């Protein structure tokens, strides 16, 4: 991954054109994931969820988790000034990575990779668009109420390449929410959201 600062020092091409392509692919991937996985969302809510995923802080965070800072090629000045951890550079590098996948492996694979890498971020954006994540909200409510911490039981089913997880959340031994998801994290968050929304009936 070559930043323009390194490219100018060494006479090489940079990632800039790749970032342009990657941005388009990531936006398409997340829009398609919303239509596929969250059919209940209207256009406005879906657009809000996408904007909470396809943004600099989120893409930078995912890029850092992938180890992108270790493989970025930066100019001397840029590296000394902390460019390897700058969110704008990391987000651009993530988009370049998706663009490279598009060029080498095709659109279908690039979209699938982007969706997988951003799946949990999208789930959080959809389930908790305006506040803390549902599990944190539910935990705080249960603690304040004196019922102790919520407990989760998760069971997986289906093939390894396309599993489905069912999560049950209990508070003080009582089932408060049950939900399914494409990952354990999504299933637990969905169950927590159901419990959170029904807390007034507890």
Structure, described:
Helix 2 packs across helix 7 (87-105) and helix 10 crosses helix 11 (184-197). The protein has 202 residues and is mainly α. The mean pLDDT is 82. The protein has two domains: 4-127, Ribonuclease iii, N-terminal Endonuclease Domain, Chain A (Orthogonal Bundle); 134-201, Double Stranded RNA Binding Domain (2-Layer Sandwich), CATH 3.30.160.20. It has eleven helices and three strands.
List the helices and strands and how they pair.
Layout: H1 4-10, H2 16-37, H3 43-53, H4 56-65, H5 68-71, H6 76-80, H7 87-105, H8 107-117, H9 119-127, H10 134-145, E1 151-157, E2 164-171, E3 174-181, H11 184-197
Antiparallel strand pairs: 1-2, 2-3
List descriptors.
Double Stranded RNA Binding Domain; Ribonuclease iii, N-terminal Endonuclease Domain, Chain A; mainly alpha
CATH topology of the largest domain: Ribonuclease iii, N-terminal Endonuclease Domain, Chain A
Give the averaged pLDDT, no decimals: 82
Give the biggest beta sheet. 3 strands, antiparallel
Strand and helix order: HHHHHHHHHHEEEH
Strand order of the largest sheet: 1-2-3
Straight-line distance between termini:
52 Å
CATH class of the largest domain, named Mainly Alpha
Anisotropy-based shape: elongated
Record field, number of beta strands:
3
Low-pLDDT windows of residues: none
Under the CATH scheme, the architecture of the largest domain is: Orthogonal Bundle
Radius of gyration, Cα only, in angstroms? 20 Å
Number of domains: 2
Output the CATH homologous superfamily of the largest domain: Ribonuclease III domain
| Tally of individual helices | 11
């Amino acid at each position: 991954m070559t930043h323009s600062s390194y490219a100018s020092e060494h006479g090489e091409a940079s990632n800039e054109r790749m970032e342009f392509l990657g941005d388009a692919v990531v936006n398409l991937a997340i829009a398609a994931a919303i239509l596929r996985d969250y059919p209940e969302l209207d256009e406005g809510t879906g657009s809000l969820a996408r904007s909470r995923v396809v943004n600099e802080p989120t893409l930078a965070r995912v890029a850092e988790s992938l180890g992108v800072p270790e493989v970025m090629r930066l100019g001397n000045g840029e590296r000394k000034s902390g460019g390897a951890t700058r969110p704008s550079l990391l987000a651009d590098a993530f988009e370049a990575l998706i663009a490279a996948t598009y060029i080498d492996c095709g659109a279908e694979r690039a979209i699938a990779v982007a969706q997988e890498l951003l799946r949990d971020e999208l789930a959080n954006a959809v389930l908790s668009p305006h506040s803390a994540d549902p599990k944190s909200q539910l935990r705080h409510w249960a603690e304040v109420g004196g019922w102790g911490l919520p407990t989760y039981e998760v069971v997986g089913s289906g093939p390894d390449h396309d599993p489905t997880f069912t999560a049950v959340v209990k508070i003080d031994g009582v089932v408060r929410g049950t939900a399914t998801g494409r990952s354990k994290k999504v299933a637990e968050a969905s169950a927590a959201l159901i419990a959170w929304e029904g807390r007034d009936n507890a």
